[in-house]
Amino acid sequence: MSIKEGFTLTDAFAAVSRVYDVLVIGGGIAGLCAALAAREQGASVALLEKTGESAGGGDSRHVSRMLLPGKGFSVDDCAESFSRPIRTMNGTELSATAPYAAALAHQAAGLAAWLQARGVALPTADSCLPGGGKALMNALYAAAEDAGIACARNAAVSRLELRNGQLCGVSFPLNGAEQQVRAKSVVVACGGVTERPGALPLRGGAANDGAAARLLETLSGCGTPRMLGARNIARYTPVDARAPETDGGAAVTPGEAFFHKATFVDRNGSPLPLPPDASGIAPSLYWGASLAALLDGKATALLAAPDAASIPLYFPPLPADSSIDSMPDAHTPAATEEEGAAVRSCMIPLVAALDSVVYGPALDEEGRPVFDGGPSPSGLFAAGEAVFANIPYVALSGPDNGLTVTAAALSGLLAGRSAAKAACAAAISEQQNQTAEVSHAG
After folding, report:
1. What is the DSSP string of 72-84?
2. How far is CA 407 from the centre of its chain?
3. Most buried of the four, 194, 344, 406, 410, by CB within 10 Å?
4. pLDDT for 29-38, tens place per residue?
């Protein structure tokens, strides 16, 4: 199943003189939820996605689980997770932005019904999404097309346009020239990963390159965006070293049961030490941090053959004496039953992959970025992974339990509804100004 392509740039922006009420940057779950929410408030909406069809949906197309209130997860659970502080591996205490966390949780009760009404197959009892992330994104893209949202691919926004303190649109390169799309409000929902140390792979898509933070930080004519977290506060996830460098997603990450049963050793065969403060932290999280601390981020997980046979693995296990540097083809067949009986243990080559970075703009209760030392631009909102620094527990502990998908969707709904409201206010103000000018001229 491929991600729905939607409209081309030519189709979406043939009338370049048109002013959209809301323009959304980013075509993952946060961006699509923002676009649909704004459209449902009566706003005209355009959505710009920087990738082509093959990478459509951003990291959202890789998800396998989603926690929804009413599906084994309560609204109170959601509120507690969003507002919960977390201590990083190096001892840094991160706190949530209370008004924003409360605003997200306030909408959580209606999320399942909202998604289902737009064609999304709801998660099963174990929070697994039928059809995975691709089915989720296909349903939302189809709903966006049905709603008349202008979606464009291969449109990498390079600049936010500001006039008299008001967001008035964006610019992006097209056929060697700068193309501008005008709008009364803009929602920045284009991912959050900013940088990765060394040669560590990305668990998600290569397009998740920190564009959201960069667009805000380079905005001129206003104050300075208040950024939370830091570029070096990150979640690392152990993935199979035979996976692709990017876009591996959840499929190449062993489940939590794997991390309870395996023994982890470095390339010299020395056991990896547990972090000193690992209580309450998911095993995948602390082993990811342990791997990331190694010089090359690589290690080996040793498993008893019966354990390896009982745990779902994307790639087959290897004989325990395999070299960590000799990664066979991904289609190497698993051992036969007779061979398995003779092999007492096996190994999985692992590498630390960058999953998420806790760095992004502080937001108010309507999803507006907060600016210091000068005026805040009107009509600017943010959603998606870039805002997870406001809910750090979700950023560092939620990717494998489905909580980040829920938070991204809710952040999109909040930003989209707020952006539509702001666009309406801007239109009324503009109309009043025009009336006043006519009266003054008369």
Report:
1. TB-HHHHHHHHH-
2. 9
3. 406
4. 999 999 999 9
CA angle 66, 203, 295 (to 5 degrees): 140
Backbone angles phi, psi at 400, to 5 degrees: -90, -10
Whether residue 279 is predicted with pLDDT greater than 60 in this model: the reply is: no
What are the residue ranges of helices labelled H in 282-358?
283-292, 305-310, 337-342
Cα–Cα distance measured from residue 351 to residue 250, given in angstroms and rounded to the nearest whole number: 14
pTM over 0.70: yes
The dihedrals phi and psi of 317, each to the nearest 5 degrees, come to -65, 160
Amino acid letter, 349: P
Instruction: Print burial letters for 343-363: b (CB count within 10 Å at least 16), e (below 16).
Output: bebbbbbbbbbbbbbbbbbbb
Adjacent-strand bridge partners of 181: 170
List the one residue out of 407, 388, 412, 385 whose CA is nearest residue 34. 412
Q: Which of 110, 80, 112, 111 is nearest to 98 (CA)?
A: 80
Q: Are 186 and 31 in contact (CB under 8 A)?
A: no
Q: Does the pLDDT of residue 405 top 70, yes or no?
A: yes
Q: State the distance between the two ends of the chain, measured CA to CA, in whole angstroms.
A: 61
At 405, the amino acid letter reads V
Q: How many CA atoms lie within 13 A of 20 on its CB side?
A: 31
Nearest to 407 by CA among 125, 107, 47, 135: 107
For residue 137, give Cα distances in angstroms to 47, 117, 182, 369: 14, 14, 26, 26
Amino acid at 105: A
Q: Which tokens is 219 given?
A: 């905005």
Amino acid identity at 122:
L
Q: What percent of the chain is helix, strand and coil (3-state, nearest 5)?
A: 35, 25, 40
Strands, DSSP E only, in 177-254? 177-188, 224-225, 227-240
* CA 133 to each of CA 139, 160, 246, 251: distance values in angstroms, whole numbers, following the listed order: 10, 29, 16, 11
Identity (one letter) of the amino acid at 272?
L
Provide the 10 A C-beta neighbour count for residue 19: 16
Q: What is the CA radius of gyration of the chain?
A: 23
Spell out the domains of the chain, with CATH numbers in brackets.
Answer: 9-233+358-429 (3.50.50.60), 235-353 (no CATH)
- Confidence check: pLDDT of 364 > 80: yes
Residue keyed to tokens 């982890």? 264
